[in-house]
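Predict the assembly for these three chains.
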Amino acid sequence: MRIFKFFFFFLFSGIYCANARTIQVCKSCEISNLETAVELAQDGDVIRIQKGTYNINNLEINKKIRLIGEDFPILDAGFKDDGLLVTADGVEIYSIEVRNTKRGNLKDFSGIRIDGADNVIVWGVRIYNAFFGVYLSNSNNALIYGNVLVGIAPDQTSSGDGIRLWKCRNVKIIKNYVSGHRDGIYFEFAYNGEIKNNKSIKNLRYGLHFMFSDTNWFADNLFTHNGTGVAVMYSSHITMLRNGFYQNWGSASYGMLLKDIKDSRIQQNMFKMNTIALYFEGSSRVKVDSNSFMENGWALKLLSSCSQDSFLTNNFIANTFDVSTNGTLFLNYFHENYWEKYTGYDINKDKIGDVPHRPVSMYSMMVENMPFVIFFMRSFIVDLMNKAEQNIPSITPENVLDSAPRMHAFKYNASSS
Amino acid sequence: MLQVVELYKKFGKLQVLKGIDASFSPGKVTAVIGHNGSGKTTMIKCILGMVIPDKGEVLLRDESVVGKWKYRSELGYMPQIGRYPDNMTMGQIFDMMQDLRKGHKTELDKELVEKYCLTEMFYKKMRTLSGGTRQKVSAALAFMFNPPVLILDEPTAGLDPLASEILKEKIMVERAKGKTIIITSHIMPEVDELADDIIFMHEGSIKFHKSMLELKAETGETKIGKALGKLLS
Amino acid sequence: MLKITKYVLIDILRNRILLMYAIFLLIISLSLFSLEEDPAKAVISLLSVVLIILPLVGMIFSTTYFYNAYEFLELLLAQPLKRNTILLAQYIGLSTCLVLAFLFGVGIPVLIYYPNEIGAVLVFAGVMLSLCFAAFAFLASVSTRDKARGIGLSLLFWFYLAIMYDAIVMGIMYAFSDYPLEKIVVLFAALNPIDLARITVLLKLDISAMMGYTGAIYQDFFGNWKGIVFSSLVMAIWVVLPLWLSVRIFNKKNI
C-alpha cells in the first residue's frame, strides 16, 4: 500500500495544480524540439511529446515538470553525451524511449540521469542501448516503475549498469525489466530501498548488486542467466524474499554472493541450476530459511569466516554438492532442513530423521582445499570415496551437521515470476 | 628335403634342445620318439615356426625358413589336440582353410573327408563335436592341400581303431607318392607299422637316428619296442 | 588378413556372452534414458557405465577369448600366414565385435534419445575405450601363456587405469598443492585413456562450469577442432601403442 499512496500522490499532483499548462511537442508543432519546450515550461507544466524521433544532448530538466510521451517517442542521444539530466525535485517522466548514450569511461553517461533531485518518478520508460540506464545520485524518494532497460554491454569493463543508485534513500524499484548491462541494478551507499517484482536477465556481472547499502529489501524478483544473480557486499539488514535465482551458470557464477553481510534474512527463495547457488563469505547473523536449492553445482558454499548464520527448513535437492566449506572451524547452525542425500531413518515417525545428517562430503572438502580435485569428478575413485563415506561416516567433517534432518521435502511455491 | 641343423632352444632355465641335427627325406616316414619332455614337440614346433630357435637352422630344400612364413604352404600339420572356434560349423572350418590357402596349386585331396563321412556333419558346430571327430577334422585338413611335407603329432591318439586304420593307410599312400612324413608317437606297434626311420630323442638331444632295418639288424629283434629296450639298456 | 577377421567375426558374433553384454548395455541405457526426465543427466550416468564397465568387460572378454582361441591360433600359425597378420586380424575381429556390441547397447539409445554433439562425443569415447582396452587385453594375453595370469594381468591394467592412476595423481598433486596445478591435471588425464574420455565428455556438459576458470579454458580447447584432434590422437596412441607392443612380443613368442 505504501507504494501506491506514494505513486498516486505524484500522479495527481499535476492535475491538482490549476495553473498547469500543457506544452505539445511534435515535428510539425509550433514547438518541435525538446530544448525549447523545457525552456518555455514552468514548474508544474506538462510536456507532451508526440510520436517521433527527437535528438537530445544532455537535456537538463531543472523544473518540476511532467515529461509525457505519446506512444513512446524516441529521444536519441546520438552517442554524444547523457540523454536526460534531471536536477529538479518532483519531475515525472513517462512513456518515452531513450536511446544511444555515449559510452566510455570519462563520465557515467546515462539514459536518464537524476542528480540531487528528490521525489522523481520514472515509469513506463524504455531505455535502449544506454551506457547506464537510469542513474540516481544524491536523490531520495524516487520511484522507478515498470521500465524496460536493454543494453548491449560488450564486456564488463566497457559497460554500465541498468539502474544505478549512488547515495540515495527510500528509492523504490518495481516491475522493471533489465538486461544486457554490467549490473542489472546497483546500489551503492543506498539505504531503505525497495526492489520488487523486477526481472534482471542476462547481465554480465550481477543481476542485483549492493555495496555499503544497509537496510534494503528485495522481494519477488527474478534473476536468470546473469554472471551472478545477486551480490550483496559490505551491507547489513538486507531482507531477501521469494526471489528466483535460475541458471546463473558459468565458471565463476553464483546465484547469490554474500560478502561481509550482517543481520540479514533470506527467505523462501528458489535457487535452481546455478553453479554456486549461495556463497557466504565473512557473514554473520544471517538467517536462511524456507528456501529451495535444486540442481545446483554447489547449493551452499560457506567459508569458515562466517559465524552465527542459521539455515532452517530449506530444501536441498539434486545438487552436486549440498554444502561445502573450507576449514574445520564452523560456527553456523543447520536445523530441520530437508536433504535429499540423507540416508537415515525415522523410526518414531515424527518426520524428522533419527540420526543427524552431515551435509559436507569428503570430496567437497577436498575440492575446496585442492581445486584441481574437481577434475576427478565422476571418476571411479571419487564414486568409491562417496560410497565408502556413506558406510564409514566418521571420515566426514565432524562439526557440520543437521541434527534434525527432515524426511520429506517442504512444499514452497516457486518464485512468482 | 627337410633338415634341422644345430637347433638350440632354451625355455627359461631349461635347455630343451641341445643342438639337434636331423634330416628328413622324401618318400619316408620318420618317427620321432622319446619320453615326455625329451624335446620332440619343441623340434616340430621349430619346424612349423611356432617356436623360434635360439640358434640353428631349419632348411627346406636347402633354404633357411626360420622367421619366414610362405614355406608353410608346403607343410601339412595335424596337432595332437585339435581345437577350433566354438561357434563355427565344421563346414565353415573347411571353407576357411581353403580360403586361407587359396594359393595352393594342386588339386584338393578330399579322400579323408569322404572316408570319415565328414560332409554329413558340416552343419554341426565345432563345440558340439567329440574329441575323436575333431581329430578326424585335423587329419583331413592336414592332408587336404597335398603338401610335400606332413607333420603328424600323435596322429592316432583319440581315434577309434577304424579311423586309425584309415589314417595309417592314407599315410602309406602318401609315402608312396614321395611325401616327407614326420610323426611322433608313443604307440610302438604303430611306429613298427609306419616308420622307415627312427629318431630317438632324450633330454634335448638325438640319441640315434637310424633306419628301421638297421635298428632291427643291430639288435636282432623284429619289434621296435624290444629293439629299443635292448639298445638303451 | 580380412579373411581371418571374417572368420573371427563369424565365431564371436555368435558368442552368447557378447550378446548378453550388448543386451545388458541396452537395458541400462534404455532404463537410464526413460527414468531420467532430463536426457543430459542420463548421459552423465551413462558416462559412469562407459568408464567403468566398458573397459572391464572389454578386457576380460578379450583376454578370455584370446586364450580360448589358443589352439585355433596354433592352427593358423601352421598355415602360410604372417604372425602380424594373424594377431592383427584377431584384434580387428574382436574389437569390431566389442564396438558393435557397444553401438547396439549404447549407441542406438543415444541416437534415439540424445542425438547431438554430446551424445556423439560419448559414443566416440566409448568406441575408443573399447578399442583401447581390447588392445590392452591383447598385450596382457601375449605376455603370458597362462590363462589365469593373463586375466590377472588384464585386471591389473584395468585396476591401475581405473583407480590407482587417479589416486596416484591426486597424491602427487596433493604433495605439490602449493603450486597452481589445475592446468596440469588435464595433461595427466591425457596419459590415461579413461580419464581422457571422462574429461572430454564432461567438458561438453553443463557440469563443466563447476571446473572453474581452468575448466573454461579447457572447454574452449576441447570445444574446437584442435581439441577433438588432440583427444582423438591421444586415444589413437592408446590403441596403437599396446597393439604394437603385443605384435612385437607375439612375433618372438613361442607358442
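The mean pLDDT of chain C is 89. Chain C has eleven helices and no strands.
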